[in-house]
Amino acid sequence: MTGPADGASTPAAGANASLAERARAGDRRALARLLSEVENRTAVAEAALRTLYPLAGGAHLVGVTGAPGSGKSTLVAALVAEARSAGRPVAVLAIDPSSPITGGAILGDRVRMQAHAGDNDVFIRSMASRGQPAGSTVAAAAVLDAAGFGLILIETVGTGQSEVEVAAIADTTLVVQAPEMGDEVQAIKAGLLEVADIVAVNKSDRPGADRAAAQLRAMLTVGARHDRQMGDRPRPKRPDVMLVSGLTGAGVAELLAALDRREAARRAAAADGRDAAALKRAEAQVAGILSQRMAAQLAEPARAAERQRVLGDLAAHRLDPYAAADALLELLGAGGGSSRKS
Amino acid sequence: MADRPIKVLIAKPGLDGHDRGAKVLARGLRDEGFEVIYTGLRQTPAMVVSAALQEDVDVVGLSILSGAHMTLLPRICDGLRENGLGDVLVTAGGIIPDDDIPALEQAGVTRIFGPGTTIREVADYIRGNVRPRAG
């Protein structure tokens, strides 16, 4: 069905279908509106995702993370330019933190990405984290994927836990490092570098970049023999280390080619059912929704009294939290309201 | 409206290089609970329109000190309308002579804030005038 030009005054269901379809058909305004619905976690977004999700899955989701000032945005802009020179549509999701105090945010990553205004095959969207888990980001990526963007760069600030989270939602994780940002011991610390598929040592136009890359390579290859002895135990990745300059563009073509090779390998592994990233992403996507749904179902009138009683017992220490959780799960199973769709 | 953050694009169209005011406003609106997309200096009208469209903002705030407001601001308003964004609030600040205000309002700028405007005034204006959203 073809929707009206603007969904403002139409019934919700018609507007949903047309928003998703218009986004699919290349209407960038509809795509932008739909991404807002996703950010706001509305019923419109939920309905649209039901249509779009089965159509997604073709894109390569690249997480780009690293310390503030490492040049992520500039490098992302360079990757966008490189992808466009090959005629590939490319989308960017730039995530910046929301203030935990006011809920406000400054989304400043576009500053370095404005060169592609007017190019319909580049879509850049800033998203405030809004204190939410990765669910909204994954849903936004799925919308962009279904809208035909085969390469989606997800940029997050590399402080706190978000960089580890981006590894959970991206197919490939690119960690950006700048020279002069730490010695060899930084490179063997746990955390960021462990989740990297590729480490880009950015600002190769600056002195010291060669040495930084060489040191990183040396430290990241320490223990390769130990890897083999670890058998099936979980172990950190062994990332490629590449020298690039987002500013001059040096090494960017090679970086994009390396990302493409990673993606081809991942697709091959996925065909054999060995795509761990896809399963992790599925888990991240469903976790938030699951708890929302459970809370909504428990709040239904048929269950509310019993839920209140269980919570009251827990508050009065007559029940322990584990027994209370079991009691609530039992309430969901026995409630008989599972045919409800919301 | 209070259940979702209002999105504001802050941009500096044209060639002047003074963005302190725009940054102070961006920071102040952040503290007022807005989500502020900052695009920085030397934006063409096409860049501003493209960013407003992709970010699906409620407000476009333009800072301009160069004197080119009579050229650039109407172009941005036209571009927004051509892209179905006629319901986005367009506000401007900077050095804009009073005599130019009627023409700019005619072109589609909904409010012009002169020097001395407080952040609270801007925030209150936005909250009071932002478009209602479908869905």
Structural class of chain B: alpha/beta
The named CATH superfamily of the largest domain in chain A = P-loop containing nucleotide triphosphate hydrolases
Number of strands of chain B: 5
Estimate percent helicity of chain A: 40-55%
Mean pLDDT of chain B: 91
Distinct helical segment count of chain A: 13
Tell me, what is the CATH class of chain B?
Alpha Beta
Task: Explain this structure.
The complex is a heterodimer of chains A (342) and B (135). Chain A is of the alpha/beta class and 342 residues long. Chain A has 3 domains: 55 residues, no CATH class; 220 residues, P-loop containing nucleotide triphosphate hydrolases (Rossmann fold, 3-Layer(aba) Sandwich); 51 residues, no CATH class. Chain A has 13 helices and 8 strands. A 7-stranded parallel β-sheet of chain A has the order 4-2-5-1-6-7-8, sandwiched between helices. In chain A, β6, α7 and β7 form a beta-alpha-beta unit. In chain A, α1 crosses α2, α4 crosses α10 and α5 packs across α11. Chain A is globular, with a radius of gyration of 23 Å. The N terminus and C terminus of chain A are likely disordered. In chain B, strands 2-1-3-4-5 form a 5-stranded parallel β-sheet, with helices on both faces. Chain B is an alpha/beta fold and 135 residues long. Chain B has 5 helices and 5 strands; from the N terminus they run βαβαβαβαβα. In chain B, α3 links the parallel β3 and β4. The mean pLDDT of chain B is 91. Chain B has one domain: 3-Layer(aba) Sandwich (Rossmann fold), CATH 3.40.50.280. Classes of the chains: A alpha/beta (342), B alpha/beta (135). β3 of chain A pairs parallel with β2 of chain B, so a sheet runs across the interface.
Name a few traits of the molecule.
heterodimer; A: 342 residues; alpha/beta; Rossmann fold; seven-stranded parallel sheet; 8 strands; 13% strand; disordered N terminus; disordered C terminus; B: 135 residues; five-stranded parallel sheet; 5 helices; 23% strand; globular
